[in-house]
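Issue 218. Parser rejects a valid record. Input:
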Amino acid sequence: MTSFCYQIGSIRVNPATVQAPMEGITDRPFREIIRSMGGCGLTVTEFVSAAQVKEKTTRRAHSALDLGTREHPVAVQIFGRDPEQMARAAEHVQALGADIIDLNMGCPSKSVTSGKPAGAALMREPKLVRAIVRTIVERVTIPVTVKMRLGWASDCQNAVEVARIVAGEGAQQIAVHGRTREMVYGGVADWAAVRPVVEAVDVPVLVNGDILTVGDARTALSLSHAAGVMVGRGLMRNPWLLRQIADAMNGDPVFAPTVAQRREALFRVVDAIDSKELHDRAALGRIKQVAGYFTRGVARTDEVRNAVYRAQSPDEARDTLDRFFAGLSEREGEELFEVIDYGAFDARLRTGDSRTLTARDPGAKGSPENK
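Output the parser choked on:
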């Protein structure tokens, strides 16, 4: 039995690798394919407004509440600011078969944090946070967890305070993204800043943000002392990342997908998209999106992406991908994959959660050179 695991109430998260919720990305097909790769201890849906849970009034609500029989344990993430409304939503989510209710207190989007402010804006209202968590915990029997940030801004980093509140009211896991809301997805996630949260509470804490490689996971865990990792955009670059992290942390050989395995995984996702009976335009857009995940790092990947993006129908996109992988199979034995050493921190380039290239300063907070 691996030691790289942790407990949320009666639920064992083994291994301690969690797929992060991502708006417009982590629908049921995506979650199921990530779990099928192996090494995923827990999946989390894309967030859904508490106001829309029961009515399922939007496509996102339908997507978030579409739970597969093979993806347990699974958490459904809800957001809002009305304690009673959120408690009713949590009750409904529990009835649908979710294993965990996750509360979004980390989304930096203006559409979520303005108007009736929710998401990361809740970190500015600790009393409301207390009321929300207390009300929900009283109304459901499954575990309640929280995802948050370091705080609202550089001068308002109150993650420790908020963590103590939510843990005190019964939250059984806390995931901390190593940025403030002010940073959105810019700059660099500060993994070391998660450690005070770990030390302040008696529930498992996950470190999140900028975890793109096995080396990133090792460093993030070392600096934060977290119980596990939550990975989002890194899975869009490498759908096998959670498996590779689990392998590394368990001392096993790190899995490296072959061309055939990449093709098989991609076409399982494409088939799942087709099975959702979307309009051709929506299906084509989704296929174009996922094609980038499974071809990243493969030789001549720019060519196939450009060809897929020019496709006018799902069938044309599928044929393009099929020809691409057939061509790679004919070259089996050649060096087909770009090897990127993310372990060298000196002026390394990385694609963070923002999907923009930024240089990680070796002296920046959160890097190994500044322990």
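Fixed in the parser; the record now loads. The chain has two domains: 6-249, 259-330.
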